[in-house]
Amino acid sequence: MTQNRERHAAPRHFLMCPPEHFDVVYAINPWMDTTVPVDTGRAIRQWTALKDAYEARGHTVDVIDSEPGLPDMVYAANGGIVVGGQAIAARFAYPERAKEGPAYDAWFTGPAARARGIAALGQSGETQEGEGDLLLIGSTLLAGHGFRTTRAAHEEAARRLGLAEQGIGVVPLELVDPRYYHLDTALAVLDDGAGGNPPLVAYLPGAFAPESRAVLERMFPGAIIASDDDAAVLGLNVVSDGRTVFLTDRAGKLAEDIAAAGFDVVGVDLSELFKGGGSVKCCTLELRPGAVGQETSR
Ligand code: ARG
Fold first, then answer.
1. At 87, is the secondary structure helix, strand, or coil?
2. Atom nearest to 282 CA in ligand 1
3. Residues 66 and 76 sit within 8 Å (Cβ to Cβ)
4. S-S: 128 plus which of 82, 124, 160, 173, CB 3.0-4.6 Å?
5. Which domain of life is it from (predicted)?
6. What percent of the chain has pLDDT over 90?
7. What's the whole-model pTM score?
8. Which residues line ligand 1 (CB under 6 A)?
9. Confidence of residue 63 (pLDDT cuts 50, 70, 90)
10. DSSP secondary structure letter of residue 19
11. Where are the beta strands (DSSP E) in the chain?
């Protein structure tokens, strides 16, 4: 049983992309159905409410311009990974999303990122879908593979970001259920341990290969186990600041378990973005600053 602990929030910087061009015109995951219409106005209102919820809790949100012809660009988590003030942009598995890689790279290279002290390292050479598959928890990078991001991309990211030098180890996790094609649909980072609590995650065991399940059991004995129903509303696709957990308002028992573990739960309605196979975390890329002064070491 997860103990009810005191949880501590740390202010975060996020990057989000408005769903102005969001649509479901191709199907690259089992949630996408091109015959179901998307209400763009509603998507924008829902996305804005999420952004407002972050800002109301003291977090900073940068916005990258959405581009016509890139309907999935709203899922900013996939745009890359930023650790220690260094950014690697994604290289997408499907041609439909390929141009998002350079678009996010351009943002990392631009003035807004520089103002945040972020140095752009360029695009990944290997297939890598950013924080969709690469989730940092304390001194561990949980790295999904099986559908999108490859093992080679984990190694490339570790090398180029200098993770070992920063004391961060990589733990590969194999995904096996096509509905949970990105790690962030199968596992939620709830507490990264920064506030002094043991790191805490929630996950759906069935989304992982047996060996990876065993790794998770060993690493996180106190983890919250999600039900199939809560995973199927993408309830694991959360953002946590260590104290407040933002997740879909469709989650049931999972939201109760998270609250019982001492978190404030903010339920958000992202029903339009769900049509593309994404929820809260998918729409949110975390921009982790480097140590002061590190931004000049390009
Ligand atoms: N339609 C997008 C895709 O299939 C959804 C991406 C969701 N993002 C995420 N971080 N899981 O690529």
1. strand
2. 10
3. no
4. 124
5. Bacteria
6. 95
7. 0.96
8. 28-29, 32, 72, 75, 77-78, 97, 132, 182, 184-185, 276-278, 281-282
9. very high
10. G
11. 13-16, 60-63, 80-83, 86-89, 119-123, 134-137, 140-145, 169-174, 187-191, 200-203, 224-225, 239-240, 244-248, 264-268, 285-286
